Amino acid sequence: MSTIPATSARDRVLIFDTTLRDGEQCPGATMTLDEKLAVAELLDTMGVDVIEAGFPIASNGDFEAVAEIARRSKRAVIAGLARAIPADIARAGEAVRHARRGRIHTFVSTSPIHLAHQMRKSEDEVVEIILKTVAQARDLVEDVEWSAMDATRTGLDYLCRCVEAAIGAGATTINLPDTVGYATPAEYRAMFEAVRTRVPNADEAVFSVHCHNDLGLAIANSLAGVEGGARQIECTINGIGERAGNAALEEIVMALRTRADALPYETGVETTMLTRASKLVSHATNFPVQFNKAIVGRNAFAHESGIHQDGMLKHAETYEIMTPASVGLAKTSLVMGKHSGRAAFRSKLGELGLHLSDNQFQDVFERFKALADRKKHVYDEDIEALVDENLATAHDRIRLVSLSVIAGTHGPQRATLKLALDGRTVTEEADGNGPVDAVFNAVRALVPHEAGLELYQVHAVTEGTDAQAEVSVRLKDGERTVTARGADPDTLVASAKAYLSALNKLAAAARRLHAQDPAAV
User: Fold this and answer.
1) Counting Cβ atoms within 10 Å, is residue 339 exposed (0-12), middle (13-18) or buried (19+)?
2) Within 10 A of 401 (CB to CB), how many other CB atoms are there?
3) Which helix (H) or strand (E) holds 176?
4) Angle at Cα 183 formed by Cα 181 and Cα 188, nearest 5°?
5) CA–CA dist 397, 438 (Å, integer)
6) What gap in Å lies between CA 179 and CA 277, rounded to an integer?
7) How many Cα atoms are found within 13 Å in the side-chain-facing hemisphere of 179?
């Protein structure tokens, strides 16, 4: 059981990251095993207290990811999610058993609307389920978290009854989530205060918040819950997650650090790693970070207004309440170019917190040299884009060999595309209503599919007319949605890479057998 120093001037708040579980439930955000391992390693290194690594019963892939993360963890508690079903709990226990500190996180619905329409159980029946499944989990691990799904729409009397039962059965952490993002901060704080006051054995467990952002209140509600007595916050990098997402880890951590005068709590997270974590998760999930996103957005420390610029030049604190360095954002340097050697490039990767195997390093270095021949200056962001693309395409069965496009004011535009497809080279020419349409038509001719294009987005990785273009593509095939990216100084080549990456993800997803859809807490 985690202990909280009750008498410290600044109480310790545990950070529970669920990027790899709740975050991955965001449509199109599925990660590969290698991507999950990289994210988990960074979370562990940066001081996250608990990493919810997945939902082991959902699929063999999810089980293997949780088990491997558990084996590799150095500091963090590794949690596996389980419904209040004996088979789920047994599978989660098996997945986390190799962790230095493993946790089973089990949940059951408690609100009247869930009991009537989803559970189809009576209140008494659900209490019996809580007693049996929490006890089963406690027999497998010492660290058991229990969640009351849809707690904020559950009657207080019944919620207290469930919490008392869960703690009595052995739960060491009690999570009262705002599952549908319905609560207001005052209501959420009052709920924690009431439950902790009315439940006789409340002091035997750590209370936790888990807030969804449907009304844009996830951060405010999370902080209100802490003020109400919770000492664990469940959150995700970049706030990714189901529907409108979860409370963002980087916003929670920096709010507690920056406003320590009003919020006398502290975390163990190394804030200088927040920007890198944001970029890693963004590229692993292929979900771009909005430019005006708090803490880690591109514009978070940008100032265009003349009044703001004047104030910044005179004193940074006139318009910045935290420094870019405090979240790991350093000024881009221009030290890399076509004359840079392997040692310098490896050193630069180290500065950026990027660690590659020998084979990965060789591939990325060759791409770097090719890029340096085309660009005068290679920025840190360019190198990060090269590494992310290498990691994303390492196991692709469809690869771009070459592309040429005829475009201009007189159409139709025409693309000639050559692909490596399962070890053989294939070529196609196609017309289109614009060069991008021509490229995608050529792809569809070589790789027939029924997926629809839901998103096509372009932005420059850095400044300048020779900047790399980064293209995001989202495809939907039936109920399956994937998002992918491609980067290249040529926007059309980047477009082709992104489209092919999305098709590779769809093909990989089709090969995976899911036992069932992951559940929401």
Assistant:
1) exposed
2) 12
3) none
4) 125
5) 22
6) 25
7) 20
- Which among 215, 314, 242 is positioned nearest to 521, based on CA atoms? 242
Instruction: State the sign of the Cα–Cα–Cα–Cα dihedral 93, 94, 96, 102.
Output: positive
Q: Is there a contact between 17 and 249 (Cβ–Cβ < 8 Å)?
A: yes
Alpha-helical runs (H) found in 97-183: 112-114, 123-140, 156-168
Q: Between β-strands 413-421 and 398-406, what pairing exists: parallel, antiparallel or unpaired? A: antiparallel
d(CA 271, CA 304): 26
Extended strands (E) in 330-462: 398-406, 413-421, 424-432, 452-460
55/63 Cα distance (integer angstroms): 7
Structure tokens belonging to residue 437? 């349409």
Cis omega (within 30 of 0) on the bond before 264? no
* Phi and psi angles of residue 178, each rounded to the nearest 5 degrees, phi first: -95, 75
User: For 517, phi and psi rounded to 5 degrees?
Assistant: -75, 145
CA-to-CA dists, residue 86 to 106, 111, 140, 165, angstroms: 10, 22, 12, 17
Structure tokens belonging to residue 132: 């049996």
Question: Is the full-model pTM beyond 0.85?
Answer: no
In order of their start, the domains of the chain are: 11-285 (3.20.20.70), 301-329 (no CATH), 342-392 (no CATH), 396-511 (3.30.160.270)
Q: Give 314-327 as a 3 state SS string.
A: HCHHHCCCCCHHHH
Task: Return the percent helix, strand and coil in the chain, to nearest 5.
Answer: 45, 20, 35
3-state secondary structure at position 22: coil
pLDDT (tens digit, 0 to 9) for every residue of the chain, 521 residues total? 444 444 345 799 999 999 999 988 887 777 888 889 999 999 999 999 999 999 999 989 899 999 999 999 999 999 999 999 999 999 999 999 999 999 999 999 999 999 988 888 999 999 999 999 999 999 999 999 999 999 999 999 999 999 999 999 999 999 999 999 999 999 999 999 999 999 999 999 999 999 999 999 999 999 999 999 999 999 999 999 989 999 999 999 999 999 999 999 999 999 999 998 998 898 888 788 888 899 988 777 764 444 444 444 454 555 467 888 888 876 555 557 777 888 888 888 877 767 788 888 988 898 888 888 887 778 777 887 788 777 666 667 888 999 999 999 887 899 999 999 888 999 999 999 999 999 999 999 999 999 999 989 898 877 777 788 889 898 998 878 888 888 888 999 999 999 998 898 888 767 654 333 444 55
